[in-house]
Every structure is written in structure tokens, then in C-alpha cells.
Write a structure and sequence with these properties.
single chain, 337 residues, eight-stranded parallel beta sheet, two-stranded antiparallel ribbon, alpha/beta, 10 strands, disordered N terminus
Length: 337
């Protein structure tokens, strides 16, 4: 992707204001790009939300090193069967959700895209995420796997894009991660993906990407998060690096619905246990991705805003005290070595 001589070079796609430093041809351009891609780091509390902050279904977070934003509440469709997925997504979209999270592994990327088109809501008003789980075996094959996802979700016309594309897991090994990351960077350069990140990555795995990544740190890390699995080491690291933290399994798949602390807080606030858990994530500064194929629960999981002032500081402290470390994970806790 050649650069022209002169002033700092703008990216062809609005995702980045400047090309990365390695594409700049002047000292001025390299310095400007370096400053843009490595902004001053926030304090560890900058991404948390106090109970007094006014949150709504349309609240967003700025995506680091980008001109885009991400809705604070997402809708997960983990393994939602294709025959049900479109209906679930339509229920979510028509009730106000504007953020849906899919993956190649889930087998429902096409259904997510179909629901968006059927909803009648402008594509620009909806934030869509997918993930690649395994490398294709070569940079070109990994690129094609990711490009296929973009086409499934948003069609084959010029201008089709995915808002966020993640590497689903680091378990394929360092070379596989490198291959997939470079494929995602290529899609960003081509304007087919707006933001990129990782999922289930620990501190060491993210640090290891520095050696080759043009876009670093990742803009997002999606990990399992709820009161029983708070993953404080990687959360602190991501906050310090200005990486958005997305929370999958925020409802713990209803396995903790009878926890005494959780039940007491639900009774105190006249909310469901699921609503307490989603609000907890929001007030921690995370982006929760609750999943359901039941219309009643889809609607209830959305109702964590409005007149409700949220959890009090003491409530959050009680939920914080439930942490069981990696033993509390029901899917996977990251490795931070």
C-alpha cells in the first residue's frame, strides 16, 4: 500500500485518521502516526461507570484509536440455531438493541445479517461483530475466511463491512494468531472491517502481538466476566492499555440464579437476577453481551436503564466479593503468563 511523499498520509477508509507509521514517508508523518496510535494511557478508573452515570440503551463507548463508537449493551447469539436466530435478532433489534455479537463458530453469521436487512433499520445504525476461531493455513486463506464472513453478514456489494472482527481464541498458537491478525489488518486497510480485537487473550498473548502488529494494542478483548469470574489481572491490563472489555456469559447461563447475594439484590431493586448482573457489568465499564432466544428475556435484559438509578456502591462491593478467580469460569479464564 504505497504512500505519497509530503504531509502525514490519511487512510483511504475513515476508520483511521492516519496511516500507521510504517506507511508514512516523512519524519513528521511518522511522529503524527505514532502519537495517534499510542495516545496517553487512561487511569484504571476511566472506563468504569458509577451508579450515578446516566446510562441508556443508546449509550456508547468510543473505540480507541478510531473514529467509531460501540453500543454499551450487546446481544449475544452464541450457538443460536439458524432457524431461531433471525427471529431472536429481529426481536432484539426492534426492541432497541443495536449491537449483535456472532462468530464463525456459532454458524449464524448469515442469519444475523438477514435479520438486519429484514429489520428495516439502516445498517449504519447497527453494530455487528464476528470472530475467526482458526487460521486458514496461510495468510491468504485466513484473509479469505474473514472476507467470507463479511460477505455472509453484509453482502457482496461494494461498501459491505463488519464493525468489529475478533480473533476468537489464542489456542491455535502464536503463528496462527499472527496469520489471523494480519488478515484482519488487511481487511481494515480495505475498509471491509472497521475495528479489530481479540477474545480470550491474556496479557502475555496481547504483548506478544507487538512484534508484528501494525494495529496494536487490539481495540477490544472479549472475555468471560461476571461476579464469580472477574479476571482482575487482564481487566486491569486492558484498562491500562485502553482496550475495550466485552463480557460474554454475563448471566452465567443462569447457573447462579439462586445465589443468596444475587437474590437479595434482585429483591432490593425489584429486578430480575439477570438484570442485576447486566447492570453490574455496565457499571464496571464492561460491554455485556447477554444471550437469549426467549422473547421475554430478550426484552427484560434490555430493561436495565430508564428510571432505575442502578446499583449502589455497596451493592457492587457485595458482588465484587463473590469472585472465585479462574475457578469461577464456566467457559474459560484467560492465561496471563
Amino acid at each position: 500500500m504505497p504512500s505519497l511523499p509530503g504531509a502525514p498520509q490519511s487512510h483511504l477508509h475513515p476508520h483511521h485518521k492516519l496511516l500507521p507509521a510504517e506507511y508514512q514517508t516523512t519524519d513528521e508523518g511518522r511522529a503524527a502516526a505514532q502519537e495517534y496510535y499510542n495516545p496517553p494511557q487512561p487511569s484504571s478508573t476511566n472506563m468504569s461507570s458509577s451508579s450515578t452515570e446516566k446510562l441508556s440503551l443508546t449509550s456508547t463507548l468510543p473505540i480507541p484509536r478510531s473514529t467509531y463508537t460501540m453500543p454499551r449493551l450487546g446481544f449475544g447469539i452464541y450457538r443460536s440455531p439458524p432457524s431461531i436466530c433471525i427471529k431472536s435478532c429481529l426481536t432484539a433489534l426492534r426492541s432497541g438493541y443495536c449491537h449483535i455479537d456472532s462468530a464463525q463458530f456459532y454458524g449464524n453469521e448469515s442469519e444475523m445479517g438477514a435479520a438486519v436487512r429484514q429489520s428495516g433499520i439502516p445498517r449504519s445504525e447497527i453494530f455487528l461483530t464476528t470472530k475467526i476461531l482458526s487460521a486458514g493455513g496461510s495468510p491468504e486463506k485466513s484473509y479469505q475466511k474473514c472476507l467470507d464472513s463479511v460477505k455472509k453478514i453484509d453482502g457482496e456489494e461494494d461498501g459491505a463491512y463488519v464493525d468489529l472482527f475478533l480473533i476468537h481464541s489464542p489456542n491455535g498458537g502464536k503463528e496462527a494468531v499472527r496469520e489471523m491478525w494480519q488478515a484482519l489488518e488487511r481487511l481494515v486497510e480495505e475498509g471491509k472491517v472497521r475495528s479489530i480485537g481479540v477474545s480470550n487473550f491474556g496479557q502475555g498473548q496481547i504483548e506478544g502481538m507487538k512484534a508484528y502488529a501494525k494495529i496494536w494494542p487490539p481495540q477490544v478483548n472479549q472475555i468471560e466476566l461476571h461476579p464469580w469470574c472477574q479476571q482482575r489481572t487482564i481487566v486491569s491490563y486492558c484498562t491500562a492499555q485502553n482496550i475495550i472489555i466485552q463480557a460474554y456469559c454475563p448471566l452465567v447461563r443462569n447457573l447462579k440464579a439462586h445465589d443468596p447475594t444475587l437474590l437479595a439484590l434482585a429483591q432490593k431493586h425489584n429486578k430480575s437476577t439477570g438484570q442485576i448482573l447486566i447492570r453490574y457489568c455496565l457499571q464496571k465499564g464492561w460491554v455485556p453481551l447477554p444471550k437469549s432466544d426467549t422473547e421475554e428475556r430478550i426484552l427484560a435484559n434490555r430493561d436495565v436503564f430508564g428510571d432505575w438509578g442502578g446499583l449502589e456502591e455497596g451493592d457492587v462491593e457485595k458482588l465484587d466479593a463473590l469472585d472465585e478467580g479462574s475457578e469461577g469460569a464456566i467457559v474459560e479464564a484467560v492465561r496471563n503468563e
